[in-house]
């Protein structure tokens, strides 16, 4: 029997490496590879075939929602489990309807990870019990979240989530402070949010952060 092949995709190295250790312990014969971004994930998939993707939803640049949709088009035999630290219904409902195979919260224990992996590999859908089951009963929505963020906006959102000021973000991204302020105001305007806290909440709910 061919060894199980798994790709873990998360921009946080500590979480990604920890998850890889858990998977190696659960499946000693599996081949587990890592990617730190959507771009790196697709590079890996050009060279290797994967049975399963464990995919972080909130990554700068190409987020997990975009990666999942493209993988389902290009690699329909690959099963996808989304990893998130936020159980927002808007994002989860949309991805369930799009055909993603499973959802786990990032604080899931190893036995639930094993249950999720084996469920989706058996051709069924797995939704963590920590996500309210009513999501699965929602009527199909025709429109995905309409606001899209550029890579630069997603990077700024990640720093805003960490509580960084415009000056600090500008220094890290080698931009002017006024430029960061302009990006922030534009994101507030197009998401129809009134402050950074609401903007971050919107980003979580719609899969930009996770």
Automatic annotation (TrEMBL):
Listed SMART domains: HTH_LUXR, REC
Pfam families linked: GerE (PF00196), Response_reg (PF00072)
SUPFAM superfamilies reported in the protein's UniProt record: C-terminal effector domain of the bipartite response regulators, CheY-like
Domain of life (superkingdom): Bacteria
GO molecular function, one term: DNA binding
Domain Response regulatory: 5-121
Domain HTH luxR-type: 142-207
One GO biological process term: phosphorelay signal transduction system
UniProt-listed Gene3D superfamilies: 3.40.50.2300
Residues where 4-aspartylphosphate is found: 56
Database matches in PROSITE patterns: HTH_LUXR_2, RESPONSE_REGULATORY
UniProt cross-references to InterPro entries, sorted A to Z: CheY-like_superfamily (IPR011006), NreC/VraR/RcsB-like_REC (IPR058245), Sig_transdc_resp-reg_C-effctor (IPR016032), Sig_transdc_resp-reg_receiver (IPR001789), Tscrpt_reg_LuxR_C (IPR000792), WalR-like (IPR039420)
Keywords: DNA-binding, Phosphoprotein
Name of the molecule in the record: Two component transcriptional regulator, LuxR family
Organism: Ohtaekwangia koreensis
């Amino acid at each position: 029997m061919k060894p199980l092949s798994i790709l873990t995709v998360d921009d946080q190295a500590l979480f990604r490496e920890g998850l890889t250790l858990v998977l190696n312990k659960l499946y000693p014969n599996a081949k587990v590879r890592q990617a730190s971004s959507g771009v790196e994930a697709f590079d890996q998939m050009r060279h290797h075939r994967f049975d399963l993707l464990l995919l972080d939803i909130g990554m700068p640049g190409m987020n997990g929602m975009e990666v999942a949709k493209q993988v389902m088009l290009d690699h329909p035999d690959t099963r996808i489990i989304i990893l998130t630290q936020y159980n927002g219904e808007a994002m989860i409902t949309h991805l369930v309807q799009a055909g993603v195979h499973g959802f786990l919260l990032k604080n899931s224990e190893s036995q639930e990870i094993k249950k999720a992996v084996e469920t989706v590999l058996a051709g069924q859908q797995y939704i963590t019990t920590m996500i309210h089951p009513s999501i699965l009963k929602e009527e199909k929505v025709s429109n995905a979240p309409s606001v899209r963020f550029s890579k630069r906006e997603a990077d700024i959102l990640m720093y805003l989530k960490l509580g960084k000021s415009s000056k600090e973000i500008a220094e890290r991204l080698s931009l002017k402070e006024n430029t960061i302020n302009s990006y922030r105001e534009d994101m507030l305007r197009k998401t129809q949010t009134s402050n950074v806290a609401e903007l971050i909440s919107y980003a979580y709910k719609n899969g930009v952060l996770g």
